[in-house]
Amino acid sequence: MLFFRKVIFYILLLLYIMICPVVIMYALGYILKPDTKTPIALTGDIHIATAPPGASIVINGKLYPENTPTLIEKLNPGPYKIDVILRRYKPWSRVVPVIGEKATVLDSIILMPEKWDSVTVSEGGYKNLIPLEGTPFILFVKDDTLGGYTIYDTAQKKSHPLVDPDSEYSKMEVVSCMTGKKSTYTAFILRSAGGTRIVWLDVSGKSGNPPVDITEFFTVLPKKLIWHGENQRYIFYKTDSSINRVDMDAGAVYPEYVTGVTGFGISGGAVYILDKDDGIYSMDYDRKNKTPIIEGAKKIRSVFNLSGSYSIIPLPGNIMLFTGTGGELIANKIPYTFVESGLLGYSFDRRREKLLVWKKDSIGILDFTAEATGDVAFEKPP
């Protein structure tokens, strides 16, 4: 009996000596591959996330037990065929590499619906669509005249011509169309044989709502007009290094409202100024309550090309964007310059604090939540 006990003891001891290191190595991310040139190898992971979530995952033809988003751990190094399947969406498939001690991240998989729901709102052909941000209205542009503009109300699902066909402005060429955030007003620079006119128009009115000629308020032709739906009384525009303000209710113009300006923007009843000497500051519409955001010219010159001009876009979460005339995109987050040139547009997701940006040949997402820095105006470099 003692002999058999010794045999069993030594067998168990041998198994412990053989299995224990394997378990420890597996816990540390190692695997045994006795049939290869490298019998011990580090494992890797694959992280998969989809929009929308809840998709099934098939790895090398075998169904994985969890749905997206998920982390698939401790995979042997090598190529893996990943299939992502979700009902009513087109399948997604790709061969991806797994590298030891690294994670292959597939967190931007956008699944396309098999069938898009659509509603025909117009049978006509249009060359452009201009949404009025923060409102239910969209401008349909058929040609380059003001009469070629149709306003569509997405809430009422109705459309009508922007101006009466018999209006004196109907045949005039549209040089530029400008809109304000959360505003139902639009501003047009129009050109005809008789000269250039600037008109102000409320798109929420009935068909034939007459434009208001505001040309007399401008001593020079503005490149861009800025206003906000929270206070549509004031219109701001920049000339050289000055900002001018137009008071629509009073019919008054305040030239050189602020001087020495390289860039500006408005939000929440405040005007934000980029000054080449004094830094960045905000103030109310009456130039009171001046609040410095970042002081000193040294910091400004290290970030901005002060020979250019910038638009300032304050966003929630202490985020400030600066877009330049050359298509650059700068933020108050390191590394400051995110797009050097060629920016065509952007859209901010307030809930997720992510910014979608696009150029002619590329599109990307800036995640401002990746690193918490507290309540700071401009991040300090490491």
Which helices and strands occur, and which strands form pairs?
Elements: H1 2-27, E1 30-32, E2 40-42, E3 44-51, E4 56-59, E5 62-63, E6 70-75, E7 78-85, E8 92-98, E9 103-110, E10 128-131, E11 137-141, E12 149-153, E13 158-161, E14 173-179, E15 185-192, E16 195-202, E17 212-213, E18 225-228, E19 231-239, E20 242-247, E21 252-259, E22 261-267, E23 270-275, E24 279-284, E25 291-295, H2 297-303, E26 310-315, E27 319-324, E28 329-331, E29 337-339, E30 345-349, E31 354-358, E32 363-367
Parallel strand pairs: 3-9, 22-26
Antiparallel strand pairs: 1-2, 3-6, 4-5, 4-7, 7-8, 10-11, 11-12, 12-13, 14-15, 15-16, 16-17, 18-19, 19-20, 20-21, 22-23, 23-24, 24-25, 26-27, 27-28, 28-29, 30-31, 31-32
Outline the structure in words.
The chain is mainly beta. Helices cover 9% and strands 46% of the residues. The protein has two helices and 32 strands. The chain has helices at residues 2-27, 297-303, and strands spanning 30-32, 40-42, 44-51, 56-59, 62-63, 70-75, 78-85, 92-98, 103-110, 128-131, 137-141, 149-153, 158-161, 173-179, 185-192, 195-202, 212-213, 225-228, 231-239, 242-247, 252-259, 261-267, 270-275, 279-284, 291-295, 310-315, 319-324, 329-331, 337-339, 345-349, 354-358, 363-367. It has an eight-stranded mixed sheet with strand order 25-24-23-22-26-27-28-29. A four-stranded antiparallel sheet has the order 5-4-7-8, with no helix packed on it. The longest helix has 26 residues, at 2-27. The radius of gyration is 30 Å and the shape is elongated. The model is unreliable at 372-376 (pLDDT under 50).
